TrEMBL record:
Taxonomy, superkingdom: Bacteria
GO biological process, one term: gamma-aminobutyric acid catabolic process
Signal sequence coordinates: none
Keywords carried by this UniProt record: Oxidoreductase
SUPFAM superfamilies with a match to the protein in the record: ALDH-like
InterPro entries assigned: Ald_DH/histidinol_DH, Ald_DH_C, Ald_DH_N, Aldehyde_DH_dom, Aldehyde_DH_Superfamily
Designated name of the protein: NAD-dependent succinate-semialdehyde dehydrogenase
MF terms in GO: succinate-semialdehyde dehydrogenase (NAD+) activity
Organism encoding this protein: Nonomuraea zeae
Domain Aldehyde dehydrogenase: 19-469
Similarity comment: Belongs to the aldehyde dehydrogenase family.
PANTHER family linked to this entry: SUCCINATE-SEMIALDEHYDE DEHYDROGENASE, MITOCHONDRIAL (PTHR43353)
Length: 476
């Protein structure tokens, strides 16, 4: 019943609403190119209503005791878990990732929400020694206020809960715009929160195919005190510029160009297996996806052969989905064609798959050099370029030769090398020998052109808090 009511609509103040002028946009299945839904194309009026609802709900939500907020968030996580299969199917239809991968993302999103719910109990203030015997000083944590969230299409559920969780835990209310390519997954998430009994207006959802209009509306509204954005560096820069006008808080998680460093003392076969899992997850459409795979010359042949075996074992359309749209496919083709023209070799893959949909096979390239597009731009597709190196200092410098600084991967059995290389790599996150990258308890985020702010862990919740300085003089 809820699904029928919610289909294609915005959630504002606890009510499912259409765009006032009836405007909609079409959602397509990237695996077939077929239209699958019409969704409300929210404009300035609908976005303004959402901010109104969030502002009205803020006093009541921030006043709830921590355990009451946590209880509602746990119920929402339970609803997501119970609906994981159906939400996963929705995600597969509009985003293309395999059902098992999509369902796992929903469950991961629920885990992030659960962790944030528990963090509500740990939002401690601080007692500071007074300046005199008659002075008392406290730091009081307070929610920053109404938050606008803007999420991407590549992880359309987990990116929502990773913003919603810490914001709600801190006592903020939220207006969220999902990616126009994947609004149905976001609507399904909003249904789960509604079913969990979240008070009206605490979480508001505005689907739109006019993202610039949504951004203009929330950036111009003084009641919106923080914006959390995951997406392209170009859009992130524009939001940063606009945030200056009203001095809004901002968290921006932008592009990546992740290097992998496989040293000669690493097990090349084990490293290749792990790199394949990271590289071909979501058809390579992740900001953390390994983009430049530097392998020491002594183990390059074994590593490349093992990586190719893993790539060839992946069946497109079954184990790996399509690219999100024709533009994404064209970019991958351009990168591969450029590499081949400059002397690289396609060990496996290398050409788009004929037939419907935007499928490109898992591709491994050898003989890659730093001047090729795959090394200079983020491919955002299932292409694994292997680049040989000889010296440690050389490879660290090459890995750092990018404006981005999100994720780096290191494979070595040498503890000293682990620490020295990890310290020298200019990235916000470094994972060694397959260490997990984004568990709920860890802060996720980058540096340089990959943005600032963190999602996950205690730092992720702190991004949604202000600390009020309270100084009290005591009378005699």
């Amino acid at each position: 019943m809820e699904t029928a009511e919610a289909a294609g609509r915005a959630l504002i103040g606890g009510e499912w609403q259409a765009e006032p002028d009836g405007r909609t946009f079409t959602v397509f299945d990237p695996a077939t190119g077929a239209a699958i839904a019409e969704v409300a194309d929210g404009g300035a009026e609908l976005t303004g209503r959402a901010v109104d609802a969030a502002a009205a709900a803020l006093p009541g939500w921030r006043a709830l005791a921590a355990h009451e907020r946590a209880g509602l968030m746990r119920r929402a996580a339970d609803e997501l878990t119970a609906r994981a299969a159906s939400i996963g199917a929705t995600m597969t239809a509009e985003q293309g990732k395999p059902l098992a991968e999509a369902t796992a993302e929903v469950l991961s999103g629920a885990e992030h929400l659960l962790w944030a719910a528990e963090e509500t109990r740990r939002l401690y203030g601080q007692t500071v020694p007074g300046a005199t015997a008659d002075n008392r000083i406290w730091l009081l944590p307070e929610p920053v206020g109404v938050v606008a969230g803007i999420t991407p299409w590549n992880f359309p559920v987990s990116m929502i809960t990773r913003k919603l969780g810490p914001a709600l835990a801190a006592g903020c209310t939220v207006v969220l715009k999902p990616a126009e390519l994947t609004p149905l997954s976001a609507i399904a998430v909003a249904e789960a929160f509604t079913a969990a009994g979240l008070p009206p207006g605490v979480f508001n959802l505005v689907p739109t195919a006019r993202p610039a209009l949504f951004a203009e509306t929330v950036m111009a509204d003084r009641r919106v005190r923080k914006v959390s954005f995951t997406g392209s560096t170009e859009v992130g820069r524009e939001l940063i510029r606009r945030s200056a006008e009203d001095v809004k808080r901002l968290s921006v998680e932008l592009g990546g160009h992740a290097p992998v460093l496989v040293f000669p003392d690493a097990d090349p076969v084990a490293a290749a297996a792990a790199v394949a899992r990271s590289k071909f997850l979501n058809a390579g459409q992740a900001c953390t996806s390994p983009n430049r795979i530097f392998v020491h010359r002594d183990v390059a042949a074994d590593f490349t052969a093992a990586l190719a075996r893993h790539a060839e074992a992946i069946e497109p359309g079954v184990d790996m989905g399509p690219l999100i749209d024709a533009a994404a496919l064209a970019k991958v083709e351009r990168h591969v064609e450029d590499a081949l023209a400059r002397g690289a070799k396609a060990v496996t893959g290398g050409r788009r798959i004929d037939g419907p949909g935007t499928f490109f096979p898992p591709t491994v390239l050898s003989g890659v050099t730093d001047d090729m597009l795959v090394c200079r731009e983020e491919t955002f597709g299932p292409v694994a370029p292997v680049i040989e190196f000889d010296a440690v200092d050389e490879v660290v410098a090459r890995a750092n030769a990018t404006a981005y600084g999100l994720t780096a991967y290191v494979w070595t059995a040498d503890l000293t090398r682990t620490l020295r290389v990890a310290e020298e790599l200019e990235f916000g996150m470094v994972t060694v020998n397959g260490g997990p990258l984004a568990p709920p308890q860890a802060p996720f985020g980058g540096i340089k052109n990959s943005g600032y702010g963190r999602e996950g862990g205690g730092l992720g919740v702190a991004d949604y808090l202000d600390y009020k300085y309270l100084s009290v003089g005591l009378g005699r």
